Amino acid sequence: MTTLPTATNKKLGLVIDLDTCVGCHACVISCKGWNTENYGAPLSDQRPYGNEPMGTFLNRVHSYEVQPPEGAAQTVHFPKSCLHCEDAPCVTVCPTGASYKRTEDGIVLVNESSCIGCGLCAWACPYGARELDQAEGVMKKCTLCVDRIYNENLPEEDRIPSCVRTCPAGARHFGDLGDPNSDVSQLVQERGGMDLMPELGTAPVNKYLPPRHKDSWDDQSLLAPLLEPIADEPAGFLGWLDKALDKLPGGTA
């Protein structure tokens, strides 16, 4: 079995804003494209144009309708991928050492040349974040685009995970969550970032920012005085137009 490092130099991970995510799936497509063309075996698809299509994805977006205790129902889009847990059960259960957690940055990876496709890590992951590629017979998971973030041949602004670079709503953030002064750590502190299923004790590095309170109709009552008509009768061009239209057959004042 594989052992976990007692500590890591960094805790690289994602912060996902559930209030901002619009469920467009741009991150899913970007992730599929980048990881099919670069790191490891391609992400295969089976029967993509037939009955019961299926394929391998490292990032998926689930949409839910939730009913808050007060106010109208809301649709929440929930992206999910590997959380790069500090106490990752998928690593310790691996019989070949293919699954491992890096000491230098805390990223959890799979050495595909050592993976035998037994599926134990997928069973151990409580978040369902691992998928066995049916064509290659190896386990696939989010790598935080390790082949991008350290690639000095790319412009600096592109040295972030593909999903973060692509998100049109700015709902995905990347950085060192082990540094309390980093932008992502400050964002988690300010917005009350939370772990997914913390009761499991896996200590996920990735964090989620909860949806903000949604305005209700009562909240808009303060604007009512500002929305009152500024004149009882239209004047100027609008006044002339109103009178001209009134003279037309069937026109109303």
Characteristic terms for this protein:
20% helix; Alpha-Beta Plaits; 253 residues; two-stranded antiparallel sheet; alpha+beta; 7 helices; 3-stranded mixed sheet
Structure description:
By secondary structure, this protein is α+β, with helices and mostly antiparallel strands. The chain has a single domain (12-209), classed as 2-Layer Sandwich (Alpha-Beta Plaits). It has seven helices and eleven strands. The strands form five sheets. It has a three-stranded mixed sheet with strand order 10-1-11. A two-stranded antiparallel ribbon has the order 2-3. A two-stranded antiparallel ribbon has the order 4-5. A hairpin with a 6-residue loop joins strand 6 (99-101) and strand 7. The radius of gyration is 25 Å and the shape is elongated.
Order of helices and strands: EHEEEEHEEHEEHHEHEH
Largest sheet: 3 strands, mixed
Kindly identify the CATH topology.
Alpha-Beta Plaits
Uncertain ranges: none
What's the pLDDT, averaged over the residues? 90
Specify the overall morphology: elongated
Briefly note the structural class of the backbone. Answer: alpha+beta
CATH architecture: 2-Layer Sandwich
Q: How many separate helices?
A: 7
| First and last CA, distance | 83 Å
The percent range for strand residues is: 15-25%
Name of the CATH first level: Alpha Beta
Counting DSSP E segments of at least 2 residues, the number of strands comes to 11
Strands of the largest sheet, in order across it? 10-1-11
